[in-house]
Amino acid sequence: MKFAAFASFIILAISCNTKNNPEYLPIATGKPGDMILIMDSIQWKGPLGTELRKIFKAEMPGLPREEPMFNLIYVHPRKGATLLTQIRNLVYVFTLDAETPGAKILKEGFDAETISRIETDTSFFVSTATDEYARGQEVMYLFGKNEEHLIKHLQENAQYIRNFFNDIEKKRAVAALTGTSTTKALTEFLQKENGIEIRVPFGFKVADKQPDFVWLRQMDAKADKSVFITWKPYESEYQFLPDSLIHWRDNVLKHYIFEDPDNPDSFVVTETTVPFKPVTARQFTFNNSFAMELRGLWKTNTNTMGGPFISYAVANQPKGLIYYLEGFCYSPGKDQRETIRELEAILSTFKVSHTQSAVSTGKP
């Protein structure tokens, strides 16, 4: 069952006294990717818990080493509010057939009408709520008449559930970017010089600029992060094929991004030789335009450096251009999941200004 089919469901499960006054709620706590899952301990150790771990601890795609999509923390239900219920991502799980103390505590929070709906409507298995116990919090309730029904829904909707929280984390990161004014000068520079807009966190600077290319970079103790944008005339939809994009990417990087700036024989390439870490592609709509997303690994031609990247290729019909924007990082030995999420959020702020008259195109 797809989310669109139950988007109109009543989202009401556990009410909060301050629900109508979210400004009085505490601010949600926790780091990006943190998630609290509250369910009965017996179900957590059984098949239902196994299915939930498959969903939330699935491997984040496009990273050089295995990292789970979320930092999943299991909590047994207890009466009374706790600090754990103020975590930014919160998931409650129960089924009506469970008679254990933990399951009973969870069921007590639902009114008779909702319980009746769960009993009679086997398609009803999920509800979500915003700012339930804290500002900036997202809560998901997963439930079923019995474990068999709920497990079936989880298997059929695993990607939706993951995407729901992935999108929430990206929206939070974008909100943080939009709210800052520290990179206003850089934003205005890009708009004036190249007719493009993109928001980046404090610390990013222009590392290089060419007629058809701009490279923004931030180096700190955690990671060396880069965002680059390049463009060329739009000719056909074949330019969006993954192989075409990889060829374009490698050509641009060979011209403009070196491992050693003093050694033009060193450069960055796409890693395509590791069979269990392939470059993945996904079509989607970006600002009402057709786009292609790539995720994968990069390395230097000298095999001395490497890391993950995420990129968008976007058509812009009014200007007759195709834009390629990418975020990549270098942080060996460190977790890179949240760095890639941050870079993805940065890319999602990209816009083309139609007021700028001309954009140069180069040979790559």
Total beta strands: 15
Number of helices: 9
C-alpha Rg (nearest Å): 23 Å
Strand content: 25-35%
Assign an overall shape: elongated
> Which structural category do the helix and sheet elements fall into?
alpha+beta
List low-confidence stretches. 1-18
End-to-end span in angstroms?
45 Å
String of helices and strands: EHHEEHHEEHHHEEEEHEEEEEHE
CATH architecture grouping of the largest domain: 2-Layer Sandwich
- Note the main sheet: 8 strands, antiparallel
Please write the CATH class name of the largest domain. Answer: Alpha Beta
Give the fraction of residues assigned to helices.
Answer: 25-40%
CATH third-level topology of the largest domain = Chitobiase, domain 2
Counting structural domains, the number is 2
Structure description:
- The protein has 9 helices and 15 strands.
- It is α+β, with helices and mostly antiparallel strands.
- Strands 7, 8, 9, 10, 11, 12, 13 and 14 form an 8-stranded antiparallel beta sheet that branches. The chain has a 5-stranded mixed beta sheet with strand order 2-1-3-5-4. Strands 6-15 form a two-stranded antiparallel sheet.
- The two termini are 45 Å apart.
- The radius of gyration is 23 Å and the shape is elongated.
- Strand 12 and strand 13 form a beta hairpin.
- Helix 2 runs parallel beside helix 5.
- 27% of the residues lie in helices and 27% in strands.
- The chain folds into 2 domains: 175 residues, Chitobiase, domain 2 (2-Layer Sandwich); 172 residues, 3-Layer(aba) Sandwich (Protein Transport Mog1p, Chain A), CATH 3.40.1000.
